User: What shape does this take?
Amino acid sequence: MKVETKADAIQDAEQSHKKTGADLFVEALVQENVDTLFGYPGGAVLPIYDAIYRSEKAFEHILTRHEQGAIHAAEGYARVSGKPGVVLATSGPGATNLVTGITDAMMDSLPLVIFTGQVATTVIGTDAFQEADVMGITTAITKHNYQVRSIEDLPRIVREAFHIASTGRPGPVLVDIPKNISSAPCEDNYKSTFYLPGYQPNLKPNPLQIKKLKEALKEAKKPVLLSGAGVIHAQASDLLQSFAKKHGIPVTNTLLGLGSYPGDDELFLGMAGMHGTYAANMALHECDFLINIGSRFDDRLTGKIEHFAPNATVAHVDIDPAEIGKNINTHIPIVADAKEVLKAFENQEVNAQHHGDWLRQLQQYKQEYPLWYNKPKEKLIPQWLMKQIQTITKGDAIITTDVGQHQMWAAQYFTFSQPNRWVTSGGLGTMGFGFPAAIGAYIANPNKRVVAIVGDGGFQMTMQELSLLQEKRYPIKVIIVNNEALGMVRQWQETFYNKRYSESLLHTQPNFVKLSESYNVKAIRIDTQQHLENVLPDVFADDHPYVLDCRVLQQENVYPMIAPGKGIHEMIGVKP
Amino acid sequence: MRRIITATVQNRSGVLNRITGLLQRRQFNIESISVGRTETEGISKMTFVVEVEDHRKLEQLTKQLHKQVDVLKVSDITDKAIVARELVLVKIGCNSQQRAELNGIIEPFRAHIIDVSKDSITVQATGKSEKIEAIIELLKPYGIKEIARTGLTAFQRGQQPQVTEFHHYSLIQ
Assistant: This one.
């Protein structure tokens, strides 16, 4: 007599294609309207990959060449689409390769749902092959994480994960799925309803605080609006624009908030912060009323706290209560969705004062202290390069970047007229982010031109994803701002370490043209302005991927700049 | 400042790790922490005693705790009318002659001797942290071999004093 063991049942299920946990997983993703899964297979996710194979394209799977590429692509997808980016990786090294991207998404509030394989529950904790304590590793860097211990919980956990990732303040949620769960035979009738009493984000503003905001606005003589990525997440850009225009309030953006307010509007002062414009930073320093909508007063924005809006009444709108009062003393705290707050001002008369003098003063700052650079005769310089890309795309492109000098120049010289067009690593400042993020951005919005502006250092961290351009022919234009250096590190060493360029100059580099060509991706090396002007029209007319190795002057620095520890009004390099 | 914070949490795997990890990475010093089940199945209660610099830090602490998905409620009960208790076990070197003397010391604390051996006794005491400190101080001269403390657990009293209520006491009825 044969006694059927659990192992037999699993084998049966696999062979007869009886429904398994992995099938349940695929169904759950379809339920969540997932159209793209960024992933990389491995031992612990074999049952899931088998179910994906059998599902016959329930959704598209994008095989990046490194798990870090998968997660940054998912971030780019999330930033552009506003929907959660979905990632699948195997246990152990697959999962640990995701850590940088998960942290990046956590810092920049990007909705991601990450699935990792795990060794079977029977061997968890025994240091099994490719086992890593993914729950322990990711607890600090996720909004929430789960390990599926029982197959009945799988559909519910997947739904909870998507809900938590995409509501409230968005963030990454990780689900760890042991191999015996994904391969176990299963029933059809597991419950997927959930109730999360400990997670009830508040969307509606408190009417009392709205009243206070109105009164403060009425009193204000020098108001300024600071808008961050929260406005973009809330899809409140239009409301923000009508709010600012109706009350005549000048607007500045955080780095991640670029695009939340049209960059070509006359009330726009430019980006604020360490490399922000003179007008924006002085507005923040001199204002008597600051309305922060959806930004978290990051230290790269505020500079030294005591000089940040020292004479202002501060109103802070944030969906995350923990951000209010964390760095800056707040007089009018409003915990709510940015859209709900701005809606409360629709069709409302506030009778705000006319801020003519204040606006004139800021206009004068704008005219007197614009962004500047010295253009040499022939040599390529990065600031001018950004302007050329702006011109050739007519400003209608999705721009992704890594971190560093090129990122700041892109932020300064590109004019974002719409939200969800600017994909950059802000909080964590991750090198190698821009290129894979561009792939995700393109998948999210294939109708837009996608330009990855990357550094020569950053590109070398994730350039293996050229394989995806080779395979899928995504018409992404990669602009390597190549100064043969870790530019921002070099700039700081020049400014604060007496030009001791310790390990920041990268004179040995691959031949990026040959490298790209080996992936069957067209590439050109460009050394002069003339050359760039000649090739750009063709490159951007072409519907193929392209890599431009732009050799720019190494000694260019990003200005203006607030030195670390200085106040927001103590900028250096505001004029040539 | 020393604050007593309680948190009602869903008793899910890893919840203690989530919370202690959070306190550690945001640089909050935990003096003591105690966890146990409550009257509701699946719900546990944690009591922390923390040392924070100022009110801003304190606000961050409660907000960050509350942000956790598994945390249902966070209260700072330091300034409320509360009952707060902790339990301590103290093993003291002691020969048979000293036992009576020790009994005399611990009796006012309503502590008990719960284990006796040839050369040591173990005392169990419960009470507010100050009382626990006091009894430990008094036992020190006898040679403390081992101490185990549970950390404080606390909740609000059934009735909170009303600020508007005024009681006049008088010796003359």
